[in-house]
Design goal:
alpha+beta; 6-stranded antiparallel beta sheet; about 375 residues; disordered C terminus; 6-stranded mixed beta sheet; 8 helices
Length: about 375
């Protein structure tokens, strides 16, 4: 059972903090779901605070659940924001999956999900809240360095974006353009995903409770815990294609060849891909029209195979099919320059073998003599 309790008696058991006020956002409300099914909607705009608890007469919102305390939690408004308090409940109050500290206000945002215990089937979803930008901690400082973030896409030999961090204390990254400073448009990026802010003499980065996580140089960050953001560390939001490199001097760091290669495809990954994707012979005209593979595609495939000579020779003798190699052609592989140079040399070597008259029986992985690539 979900219901509304006595408003007068609720006030006798919970006193809102002095700073609480009637909300300016008059459409604020809570939508209540049970086991994923919508139950009802309760407006939250007419009082400074609303209490939530088990079946009794002292709360505003009654949740009939064995794990819910008699007086469990409360929604409290200021003039511009809304908060949730846990009122010392035994089973705890959970905001977006994380248990909150008792008697400490936690700011709510549009779509915030509150659960009255970890295993409760009841979820309270906040709606009608204004968009509010995440704010850095009180100890953050004004910028003391010309730091900047440089964005790079996989396989690129240069940076594609530059975001200066020297104009304000904090920069929020995410996909909601109304409340972020650095826009990152990707499905796996949260509306406010992460933030970078200045301390006394250190730059910090913090994950803002994102759904798909924030990675710093390959390590996933713990939500809502600031960590140091060091020179040339790489910041990744969820599975977004763009990655950000920090430069404390504000000058774009120089990309290393090894770094480009690792970002595209590691040598061992590439060798494994070649071993399972080798062309036995050039497709006929009919096959090319059916599959979309062109002669230039085939040439590119042999170029790629030569990048790992031992793997290519091994796979050539195994006599894999055209379909295997087309899988390689359709995969997002970008060869680093070092591999590409060796591959071009291999292409010329293959042509010499063909000109010498080798046939498919002798070399199952080669292309027939008079076919171009």
């Amino acid at each position: 059972m979900i219901g509304i309790g006595s408003k007068n008696k609720a006030a006798d058991f919970f006193k809102p903090p002095e700073w609480s006020k009637l909300p300016k956002h008059t459409q604020v409300r809570v939508e209540i779901f049970r086991a994923g099914n919508f139950i009802k909607e309760i407006p939250l705009a007419h009082k400074k605070a609303y209490t939530v608890g088990g079946k009794n007469e002292v709360v505003d919102i009654i949740v009939d659940d064995a794990s819910v305390a008699r007086l469990h939690c409360a929604f409290v408004h200021s003039s511009s924001s809304s908060f949730v308090f846990d009122l010392g409940s035994p089973s705890g109050t959970f905001l977006n999956g994380k248990r909150i500290a008792p008697h400490e206000p936690e700011m709510l945002s549009e779509g915030s999900e509150v659960r009255v215990s970890e295993k409760s089937q009841t979820t309270l979803v906040l709606k009608g809240l204004p968009l509010s930008k995440w704010q850095p901690p009180a100890w953050s400082k004004m910028p003391w360095s010309p730091a900047a973030l440089f964005g790079r896409l996989p396989g690129a030999d240069e940076f594609v974006s530059e975001s200066r961090l020297s104009d304000q204390k904090c920069h929020v990254l995410g996909r909601n353009g109304a409340v972020v400073d650095i826009l990152v448009q990707a499905d796996s990026v949260s509306r406010q995903h992460a933030a970078v802010f200045h301390g006394e003499s250190t730059l910090y980065v913090v994950d803002l409770g994102s759904a798909h996580g924030t990675w710093l140089s390959g390590e996933r960050l713990e939500p809502n815990r600031p960590v140091q953001f060091r020179e040339e560390a790489i910041l990744q939001l969820g599975q977004a294609p763009i990655a950000f490199t920090l430069s404390m001097s504000g000058v774009a760091p120089r990309l290393k060849k090894r770094e480009r290669a690792e970002a595209d495809l590691s040598s061992s990954q590439f060798g494994s891909l070649v071993r399972t994707s080798v062309l036995q012979k050039t497709p006929s005209q009919t096959e090319r029209s059916a599959t979309g593979a062109s002669e230039s595609d085939v040439g590119d495939a042999f170029t790629a195979a030569k990048a790992e000579p031992a793997a290519a020779a091994d796979a050539g003798r195994s006599g894999k099919t055209n379909a295997d190699f087309r899988a390689l052609l359709n995969s997002p592989v970008t060869l680093p320059k070092g591999m590409r140079k060796g591959a071009i040399e291999g292409k010329a070597a293959l042509r010499k073998v063909q000109d010498a008259g080798s046939d498919d029986d002798e070399l199952p992985g080669t292309i027939k003599k008079k076919q171009k690539f």
